[in-house]
Predict the 3D structure of the following.
Amino acid sequence: MATKLTRRQHLKYKICISGAADTGHCAIDASEKAEEMGREIARRGMVLVTGATVGIPYWAAKGAKEEGGIVIGLSPAASEAAHVKSYKLPTDYHDLIIYTGFEYSGRNLLLTRSADAVINICGRMGTLNEFTIAFEDEKPIGVLEGTGGTADELRGIVGKMHRGPGKVVYSKDIKELLDKVVAEIDKEKNNKGVSRYTRG
């Protein structure tokens, strides 16, 4: 007989992918890793949340959608027209996009707070902004090291800030990083036993 899920168990974990829109400074395989991260998030039945932008988040969205996953975007623009024409941002590979109208800094706050955890892949200043918001909010954060940009600097930055490690986990391996992130979310939600989102 199937086990009846509680209301909390019905809620899918939401994972925000935070990363560089311009990937010119990223590791040569950063976009490929972002796409695979999106695929792995979808395989585990989790929801991908992005800033509805280009670069790393776009590749993650592509991977998730091609794997049959759900992708939600939060745009800095106030409308679809502004999103496409003014910001020149894409709408593909998303199931829905929420037009916040709060520009990039306001969007970043809503983006990180709408997710259960944030995963950093490469990144620049905007990604660092999302990281610091998530860190201050004591949100689980995963850092995919070896992808360049902020992802390869965050361990050192956290170590020098004298604020403790926070809920930040690190790995160069996609599946291992997701396992660590899921474990942190489980702790927050007081889930017991093996999570349904941990790889089998």
